[in-house]
Amino acid sequence: MGEFRGLLIPSLCFLFGAAAVLSELACKDSHSGPTYESLQSVFDKKPFRPATNLSNPTVTNISFTLYAVLGVNEKSQILTTFLWLRLYWYHEFLQWDPEKCGGITKISLPVEELWMPDIIVYEFIDEDKSQRCPYIYVNHTGQIRYDRMLRVLSSCNLEIFNFPFDVQKCSLTFGSYMHTIRDVRVSLALPIEQISENSKKYLETSGEWELVKIQGETDILKFGIDEWDIITFWVTIKRRPVLYVVNLIIPSSFLMLVDIMSFYLPPHSVDRASFKMTLILGYTVFLLIMNDLLPSTANGTPLIGIYFSVCLALMVISLLETVIITYVLHHSAMKYRPVPRLVRVMVLGYLARLICYTRPPSQPETPSNNITTDPQEKMKNVEVSQASPELQQICRDLGMVRAHIDSLRLQQDLEEEWIHVGYVLDYLLFRVYLVLITLYALVITCMWCIWYNL
Ligand SMILES: *[C@@H]1O[C@H](CO)[C@@H](O)[C@H](O)[C@H]1NC(C)=O
Ligand SMILES: *[C@@H]1O[C@H](CO)[C@@H](O)[C@H](O)[C@H]1NC(C)=O
Ligand SMILES: *[C@@H]1O[C@H](CO)[C@@H](O)[C@H](O)[C@H]1NC(C)=O
């Protein structure tokens, strides 16, 4: 046994010595760069992590350039981006002395033949369809540089409330899927400011989205007793709203303007009703077109969508009001009915005061029913009763004419009162309309300011 151990220890020492020699690739004088045999021996070790001491983790340095934002799908909450990813790590078996190898410091090798860290994007939710680069560069120090393109379909919580002035912040988390912190660690290859700068340079020219900034932080993901090293990049992008301003906001503003101007048509005219009907029709067509442009999610609608619905509601209400006023004024049964007390108090009293509506001064004549109670009139009646039958007849006829005129006047007064009710309602709706539209303009301006200053 002792004899056996005596044999074993020297042979183990020899093995370690061989390992130490193996960690540097062999070169021949007639050949520049490491020999094929020595490289083949490294390729044979592909399944194993290239660390001479397995207690030391392989550090992978990550950097990327955000090359394009290909799309944002609000409905399925997916952000599609295109990255140029660059990974660095040390392959401790791929080291050589450039002086012995004809001054070669860098060679390229096929990536399938070498171990590589299983760095993934945690938010990735689709298969990767991008092209893979089959080669890597390796340094004489064993530093490997691996470049690849990556089309990332990542899940992201997209907020569309501020559409089209929306800003999205999505995370891209890089880390090893399987290897815990004791085997693979990740860190940044470039300062985060530089990653951000490089990406901005490429994204400046392309597409609907503009890059605001990229932030990054390293973190440790814990799951049970295992820990994973991760880097989270926060990509903040904002939409370029020109398309939507031209196609949504400006046409809707024009329609709103026309609708506002239609309040200057008299509320009881039939023209106004048909005018408003046409406007509503036009607005509906606009809404149909808009439906394609407006994003929608299950958990919310953009503010601008709510606003369009409110505008449609206001248009319909103003049309209804026109219809009611027209009905009141043109329906003969209504003509002789006075304005109900409640309506008079509520509309002509409170509402009129609330919206500062002053009744335009009506004709200076006094109400007609005073005339019959005039004392002079009674005197005349007495005188007439003693006159000739012809005169009596004329007088009776005149009385009838007067009664008719009186009833017409009464009718006109009632109609005027109804018209006033109509005007008060119309003014109220007009004010509400103006307030809502001003509010909306303010909100849009605020959103635009926030967007602009980001
Ligand atoms: C391997 O690395 C660990 C930690 O760095 C160190 O404690 C240990 O001595 C090393 N083992 C060998 C055989 O070098
Ligand atoms: C990774 O970055 C660290 C410092 O950030 C550096 O010390 C190390 O050499 C880098 N590793 C590789 C493989 O580039
Ligand atoms: C090669 O090694 C040198 C230091 O010896 C380093 O500056 C350089 O970035 C490395 N290049 C690559 C491609 O790894």
UniProtKB/TrEMBL annotation:
<keyword id="KW-1133">Transmembrane helix</keyword>
<comment type="similarity">
    <text>Belongs to the ligand-gated ion channel (TC 1.A.9) family.</text>
</comment>
<dbReference type="InterPro" id="IPR038050">
    <property type="entry name" value="Neuro_actylchol_rec"/>
</dbReference>
<keyword id="KW-0406">Ion transport</keyword>
<keyword id="KW-1015">Disulfide bond</keyword>
<feature type="domain" description="Neurotransmitter-gated ion-channel ligand-binding">
    <location>
        <begin position="38"/>
        <end position="241"/>
    </location>
</feature>
<feature type="transmembrane region" description="Helical">
    <location>
        <begin position="306"/>
        <end position="330"/>
    </location>
</feature>
<dbReference type="GO" id="GO:0005230">
    <property type="term" value="F:extracellular ligand-gated monoatomic ion channel activity"/>
</dbReference>
<dbReference type="InterPro" id="IPR006029">
    <property type="entry name" value="Neurotrans-gated_channel_TM"/>
</dbReference>
<feature type="transmembrane region" description="Helical">
    <location>
        <begin position="428"/>
        <end position="451"/>
    </location>
</feature>
<keyword id="KW-0812">Transmembrane</keyword>
<dbReference type="Pfam" id="PF02932">
    <property type="entry name" value="Neur_chan_memb"/>
</dbReference>
<dbReference type="InterPro" id="IPR036719">
    <property type="entry name" value="Neuro-gated_channel_TM_sf"/>
</dbReference>
<comment type="function">
    <text>Forms serotonin (5-hydroxytryptamine/5-HT3)-activated cation-selective channel complexes, which when activated cause fast, depolarizing responses in neurons.</text>
</comment>
<dbReference type="InterPro" id="IPR006202">
    <property type="entry name" value="Neur_chan_lig-bd"/>
</dbReference>
<keyword id="KW-1071">Ligand-gated ion channel</keyword>
<dbReference type="GO" id="GO:0045211">
    <property type="term" value="C:postsynaptic membrane"/>
</dbReference>
<dbReference type="GO" id="GO:0004888">
    <property type="term" value="F:transmembrane signaling receptor activity"/>
</dbReference>
<protein>
    <submittedName>
        <fullName>5-hydroxytryptamine receptor 3E</fullName>
    </submittedName>
</protein>
<keyword id="KW-1003">Cell membrane</keyword>
<dbReference type="Pfam" id="PF02931">
    <property type="entry name" value="Neur_chan_LBD"/>
</dbReference>
<dbReference type="InterPro" id="IPR006201">
    <property type="entry name" value="Neur_channel"/>
</dbReference>
<keyword id="KW-0628">Postsynaptic cell membrane</keyword>
<feature type="transmembrane region" description="Helical">
    <location>
        <begin position="277"/>
        <end position="294"/>
    </location>
</feature>
<keyword id="KW-0675">Receptor</keyword>
<keyword id="KW-0407">Ion channel</keyword>
<dbReference type="InterPro" id="IPR008132">
    <property type="entry name" value="5HT3_rcpt"/>
</dbReference>
<dbReference type="InterPro" id="IPR036734">
    <property type="entry name" value="Neur_chan_lig-bd_sf"/>
</dbReference>
<feature type="signal peptide">
    <location>
        <begin position="1"/>
        <end position="23"/>
    </location>
</feature>
<keyword id="KW-0472">Membrane</keyword>
<feature type="transmembrane region" description="Helical">
    <location>
        <begin position="242"/>
        <end position="265"/>
    </location>
</feature>
<keyword id="KW-0770">Synapse</keyword>
<keyword id="KW-0325">Glycoprotein</keyword>
<dbReference type="InterPro" id="IPR018000">
    <property type="entry name" value="Neurotransmitter_ion_chnl_CS"/>
</dbReference>
<dbReference type="InterPro" id="IPR049944">
    <property type="entry name" value="LGIC_TM_5-HT3"/>
</dbReference>
<feature type="domain" description="Neurotransmitter-gated ion-channel transmembrane">
    <location>
        <begin position="248"/>
        <end position="369"/>
    </location>
</feature>
<keyword id="KW-0813">Transport</keyword>
<keyword id="KW-0732">Signal</keyword>
<dbReference type="InterPro" id="IPR008133">
    <property type="entry name" value="5HT3_rcpt_A"/>
</dbReference>
